[in-house]
Amino acid sequence: MLKILKYSFYDLMRSRWSYVYFAFYLLLGVVLLFLNNDLSKAVITLMNVIIVLVPLIGTIFGVMYYYNSKEFTELLLAQPLKRSSIFLGQYLGVAISLSMSLILGLGIPFIFYGLFKSSAIWDFSLLLITGTFLTFIFTALAFNIALSNENKIKGFGYAILLWLFLAIIYDGIFLMTLILFEDYPLDKLSLIGTMLNPIDLSRTLILLKLDISALLGYTGAIFKQFFGTNFGLIISISMLSVWVIMPVLRIVFKAKRKDF
Amino acid sequence: MVSIQNLHKKFGKNQVLSGLDLEIGEGGIFAVLGPNGSGKTTLIKCLLGMVIPNKGNINVLGENVKNGSAYRHKIDYLPQIANFPNNLKVKELIKMIKDLRGNTTLDQELISLFKLEPFLDKKLGNLSGGTKQKVNLVLTFMFDSPLVILDEPTSGLDPISLLRLKKLIQAEKAKGKTILITSHIMSFVEEISDEIVFLLEGQIYFKGTISELKSKTNQPDFEHAIASILTDNHA
């Protein structure tokens, strides 16, 4: 698996898109720091961008890489290699190289700005950790979609729909339920609802760590009680891990039964 | 060498292989023939474990195909369409496959046989179809495995390379290897193969030498013999 990972990683590192992605984050980091002139404010703005953009890029890249490397995959399948190691290697290659672009692209400008001397370092690290989690989650989901759909256009369509659903539509439905059932106690429901969507989960996690939960009012207080504690942090991180592990297991399962 | 029992494969509603049985002994060149869509490539992909059969049993060199991937160390496979990762150089691709399968020194010989030296530093995306096929041939033959499977080996090759390929196949046969070929070029098949296996509607319609086929169909030459099978069964 490590060999496949190595080759997928090199292949991606060599492609133009990794650099574009890296350069984009570099630019974003520099511009935000320049405009905000303050580390913690830049972190908040950055969060809003990362929460939406990282899943989108992960989804698109994952689907694109799978379809584009179809020939490479077929070449590998005829070699004495296990199917699970071929697909896990490719998945990790994509996810790791995307995460590296994110971490380096944002890390470099922030370090030059004096991140290590600032108190925002923990918030910033949490931001990068959730960004990496989101990359791993959405790349895995994208691989799942691509494995189940031979047709490229359909695969892309479903992938975009998935992103749209989790990034935007889910929130809408969530909000509607909260309004519809406002006469009932909703704190448990909203906690669970947040847990079930990795994007919402990441957003809440960062917001509450940033200590701006006062903006969220009463719900914020409940959330703060839960997410603000170490227990909440551990539960959230394990929930994000479950979001990585489940799709990865399905990749292995699906890959074993597929015809090429 | 290869033993297949009661192989079934369906793609959606399309039944491609229906109860195919095949025994292939050790040594010699076997041509797998059949009309388009008769299941030649599916059969080969089943042997390689790329397509998973619905039913049936496949043994390659005494090992069941279902039990892991190690048996593929003994198979060299030439895929039908030579599509490689486009931003790799030829040299890098060869190095990568060696890295994945184990070292070999045969590649230098094959590269000079097919005159590929000027292309080693070029990216695979910039090569012509014929040159890609030559790279494909180098990758296939460089491991010296006892079973060689060639899916349409002649596609895109110029006449000189075709001659070299024929010589190469004969030399491999002389080493005692078993070689499985599919091709639509009847003259190539007639010239090179010891035995043919004719697939029709997902089953083996005929297995034997070319002269046996000629006498069975009462036709003077090989091309007409094949054509007569097809017209008899589709008329």
From TrEMBL, chain A:
Keywords: Membrane, Transmembrane, Transmembrane helix
Transmembrane segments: 20-36, 42-67, 88-112, 124-147, 159-181, 231-253
Domain of life: Bacteria
UniProt name for this protein: Cu-processing system permease protein
Automatic annotation (TrEMBL), chain B:
Pfam families: ABC_tran (PF00005)
UniProt GO MF annotations: ATP binding; ATP hydrolysis activity
Signal peptide, first to last residue: none
Sorted UniProt keywords: ATP-binding, Nucleotide-binding, Transport
Domain ABC transporter, first and last residues per copy: 2-226
Keyword Ribosomal protein carried by entry: no
Keyword check for Cytoplasm: no
Name of the protein in question: Cu-processing system ATP-binding protein
